[in-house]
Amino acid sequence: MRQTLVRRSVVTTFALALALATAPAVAEAKPRPNTNAAVKVDLTVQGPDGLLFQGKVKTKGHDVTTATGGTHKCDGTNGGANPSKVPTPTAALDDAAHKKGFTWDGTWYASFDDFSVDTIKNVSGGGSAYWSIAVNGTPTPVGGCQFKLSAGDRVSFTWTSF
Fold it and tell me: Model pTM?
């Protein structure tokens, strides 16, 4: 009886090995899509006295440098908001500023892993106002370096007093 069990074990092991050896290979993992592909968005900057900028901007997540905040990533991975790099509102503002020749500044807050936009085109928020960020008419629930933009989104930075 013991001999029969040993034979069955050997035959089963051999059959399993043969099945594994002849099974089709597992398909290779597909490469991840480029989540940080440049997208074109409509950007509006509305100051207290009117429109400061309006236009289409091609953007993707990237490092951003401000005079006050220094250089930091602004690619949607901030604060673990997205698993991979994506276009963001603050990156769009930065791209528009570089391409259209205006300035902006922001303070970096390590605890939020994000910038606070303080000044756009020499218009500062100050003690009783701030620059709010909205996408498609809805305020962003996270910072401007954390929110994922899609092609065609309407991004606005609006001077808001309280």
Answer: 0.80
